[in-house]
């Protein structure tokens, strides 16, 4: 395998079933497209079915569309029920969809938009689909985080929904930190099952629609700098694809671009912030997320204060 990992390194995916959220554009589109080209049966789980069908028409292979609005727990439950009736198994669940730096808004369930979409929606979807993955050897849950998990980020248990005051950058950081904490706690719970593993990835600075809500003070500099220091959506999708398909990948790992400051480059293993590994916060976030979503996972809590003995090997 080349040191510069590309889509050419993706193993044959025939016989595998992948569900990719937010797959009608940007990183999700490139992720789904690459998996379909390698033979996977891919479901584009998207809010706008029309755009999803247009995206599917541009792909080669077995690609279908499922309506999913992560800002609504009713929609998440409906989508999960539909997928359960359609699919006998899921090999890959790619939690890719997200919003970034949105003005103060709430989801249909009253959650702050970024936390509700990026974390709680995917938390609920994963919990509702996980039993379709547990019997499947080599199945993986890959959740897309961001270098934003380091920027003014913390889990504000005293005001998770930013009702007292709102900072769109810090709220985004909270949601992306939550993505990582969810991944690490999920991996800890999955470790005893020996089949499904959880991993995370981030795309660096990629040219996508996600940054459309960037604050005005940053928008112009990013517009000029992104083409110079960033990378395409196809390159930005590579860390997710490597986490999802590299036979050498291990549960609990985090992939990102290999260039300086993880802004761009071919995917490699990277590290997340020290606070993303705080066990007590991970477990508290998990309990709060179960309460807020009403979703219980089919994998129990690991032994109290236990830590993973190391990444879990997956085929």
Shape: globular
Query: Can you write the helix and strand succession as a string?
Result: EHEHEHEHEHEHHHEEH
Calculate Rg over CA atoms.
Answer: 18 Å
Number of strands: 8
- Rounded to the nearest angstrom, the distance between the terminal CA atoms is 16 Å
- What percent of residues are in strands? 5-15%
Q: State the low-pLDDT regions, or none.
A: 305-315
Which structural class matches the secondary elements? alpha/beta
Count of alpha and pi helical runs: 9
Give the % helix: 25-40%
Overall pLDDT confidence: 90
Strand order of the largest sheet: 3-2-1-4-5-6-7-8
For the largest beta-sheet, the strand count, sense and barrel status come to: 8 strands, mixed
Which features would summarize this protein structure in a list?
315 residues; alpha/beta; 8-stranded mixed sheet; 8 strands; globular; disordered C terminus
List the helices and strands and how they pair.
Elements: E1 17-21, H1 26-37, E2 41-46, H2 49-57, E3 63-67, H3 73-86, E4 92-95, H4 113-129, E5 140-144, H5 168-190, E6 197-201, H6 216-229, H7 233-236, H8 238-245, E7 254-257, E8 267-269, H9 279-293
